[in-house]
Amino acid sequence: MKARVHITLRDGVLDPQGKTIAQALGSLGFSGVNDVRQGKFIELDIEAASAAAARAEVERMCSQLLANTVIENYQIEIES
Amino acid sequence: MKAGVIVFPGSNCDRDVQVALARSLGREPEMIWHREAELPKLDLIVVPGGFSYGDYLRCGAMAAHSPVMREVVARARAGTRVLAICNGFQVVTEAGLLPGVLMTNASLSFICRDVDLRVENAGSAFTSRYATGQVVRMPIAHHGGNYFTDDDTLARIEGGGQVAFRYCAPDGTLREDANPNGSCNAIAGIFNEARTVLGMMPHPERLADPALGGTDGRAMFDGLVEALS
Questions:
Q1: Quick check: A16 and B107 CB within 8 A?
Q2: What are the pLDDT digits (tens) for B151-168?
Q3: What is the C-alpha separation between B202 and B137, in angstroms, rounded?
Q4: B111, B142 contact by CB (below 8 A)
Q5: Could you list the active site residues of B?
Q6: Share of chain B above pLDDT 90, in %
């Protein structure tokens, strides 16, 4: 089963890399960029009895290792 | 007093700490490889600087879950002193021994230079040879030293005397241009509540010998030896 995890910085946490990307886009002539937030994308291939079981397992992976919830949020997608 | 230095793949300040500790202690500390699941009896554990596990995922995240860190966390919870420097600070925050997180420097640059630090609390085994308010000089060398935590935790750290060091101007005043990495409240190092764990981005071991250009770091190791012997 495929699980996809999107990890993003929480609202209010400064993202200097996102800011730098936004500036670079501006200097390339993309004038309509209001804000850029950079994150991580992790794809997992896992064994699980059901989509719900997979989600629960990945949820535990996120809270223990994949994300640091002091500064990051995560979203999980399961594709069975 | 018995001291041990944890060595991860990618640690690069382990030998510097070994030398600094040996000078103050009069004998060599034990060097402990990250695969060790059991530790000898120790009064002080140092988690040194470097780039453990290549900074994969997040700085310190992989090391925080290594076999040896489970034991370090258990010892720390039982009161053993833990000094976590630079990457070590990142490791112990990821392991949950200290609150908050070290984010990428606000400038996005790797910064390697000496900084001035104000000692915020001399009431610990780590800082007893300093005076509260004293300004000391130590080097920093990091890309991710931007200390961040939520407002409630920050208020708790500040209220509980858990700030050990702040980045400051040479005269001890706090100025935005004296904060090298964007850390909230210019925090350079914090204690746990019991002040038995210290995490700090600056490197006391790199200015602990006159031949290195300064000795302000030596007082930390001398103080630890005095307190724990």
A1: yes
A2: 999 999 999 999 999 999
A3: 9
A4: yes
A5: 86, 203, 205
A6: 100
Record the pTM: 0.94
Interface predicted TM-score (ipTM) = 0.85
Element (H, E) at A24: helix A16-27
Which B positions 88-147 lie with beta carbon below 8 A of chain A?
94, 99-101, 103-108
Question: What is d(CA A61, CA A75) in angstroms, rounded to the nearest whole number?
Answer: 12
Among A16, A65, A68, the residue with its CB nearest the CB of B104 is A16
**Chain B within 8 Å of A70 (Cβ-Cβ)?**
yes
C-alpha distance from B92 to closest chain A C-alpha (Å): 13
